[in-house]
Amino acid sequence: GGARRCGRRCGPLDGSARSKDRIGFGNTGVVAAILVDLPFSGRPVARSVPARLWRGKDTAGRSEPALARDLKHVAGGRIVHVVADAAHHHPGVAALPTGITWTTRLAANATLLGPTPPRPGKRGRPRQKGAPPGTLTQSATRAPRRPVTVARSPSPATDRSTNVPLTDQRGQWYRPWQDLPVQLILLHDPSRYYDLALITTDLTTPAEQLLTQYTARAVERTLPFDLTTHTPVILWYTRHGNPTDDVTTHHTASP
Predict the structure, then answer these.
(1) 36 Cβ contact list (under 8 Å, min separation 6)
(2) Most Cβ neighbours (<10 Å): which of 14, 111, 136, 234?
(3) Cβ(53)–Cβ(37) under 8 Å?
(4) 97-155 residue pLDDT tens
(5) How far apart are CA 78 and CA 86, in angstroms?
(6) How many whole angstroms separate alpha carbon 15 and alpha carbon 12?
(7) Is the pLDDT of residue 8 over 50?
(8) How confident is the model at residue 160 (pLDDT cuts 50, 70, 90)?
(9) Which helix (H) or strand (E) holds 3?
């Protein structure tokens, strides 16, 4: 996610800016949030953990993959599943270590390739690029579809599951992620060829679960206020609060 603070410095293009040319003014931050299930909440909550000031395209050490590496250092042996919007397809994803997966949305004009072809057993450098499967629309019409149940929320209390046709296939997104094996997920809509196109480096998690993780993502835009106030309060209430008694007391005291 991104966060901006008004100031005298000019930032990059900002679709929510008030100016006519959509140029944001202030500092731009890159924030990573962890999606957690809290005992007093009926839906998952995203909590900001690391944050970095984004200074431009040449500051690779402060990019989204750098935040993922920081989370992996804290997580230890646990797998870090990063779910991000279409703007976060950083080339550094191809160099991430084992234990970090990346899922993001694809643009409609993205060019994909098929899986890496097998080694022919002959001399010379083997081919690294697979055969192009066509555009996303062509992939959606040619590939076989299967019905799946997708949960709109990971929490059973707020779940709104729907049955949709889905297509998934292996391939490469060679230009940004080189020959890294990826999985293409196309969620179909009856009114058009596809409604949602995702690309992920996670080749083991079922596509239904990846879609649920993507729909549950949240963008934090309260840096640095969220890091200094909201997160400590939630941590304190999770350990020492009593949501049942607190709600009853609040309802009793209300007029």
Answers:
(1) 44, 45, 46, 47
(2) 136
(3) no
(4) 899 999 998 887 888 888 888 877 788 787 888 888 888 878 877 878 888 777 655 55
(5) 25
(6) 10
(7) no
(8) low
(9) strand 2-13
Long-range contacts, 113-121 (Cβ 8 Å, 24+): 113/171, 113/172, 113/173, 113/174, 114/170, 114/171, 114/172, 115/170, 115/171, 115/172, 115/181, 116/172, 116/179, 116/181
- Other CB atoms closer than 10 Å to residue 155's CB: what's the count? 16
Banded pLDDT at 5 (limits 50, 70, 90): very low
Q: Which of 12-16, 186-190, 210-214 has the lowest mean pLDDT?
A: 12-16
Three-class SS state of 31: strand
- On the question of a cis peptide bond just before residue 224, with omega within 30 degrees of 0, the verdict is yes
33: enclosing H helix or E strand:
strand 23-36
Summary mean pLDDT of the chain = 75
Q: How far is CA 235 from the centre of its chain?
A: 24
User: Is the distance from CB of 84 to CB of 103 less than 8 angstroms?
Assistant: yes
**How long, in residues, is the chain?**
255
Give me the residue label for tokens 């007391």. Answer: 249
CB 161 within 8 A of CB 152: yes
Token reading at 139: 């992939």
Torsion angles phi and psi, residue 5, rounded to 5: -125, 130
Transcribe 198-213 into DSSP letters: EEES-SSS-HHHHHHH
Tokens of 12: 């990059």
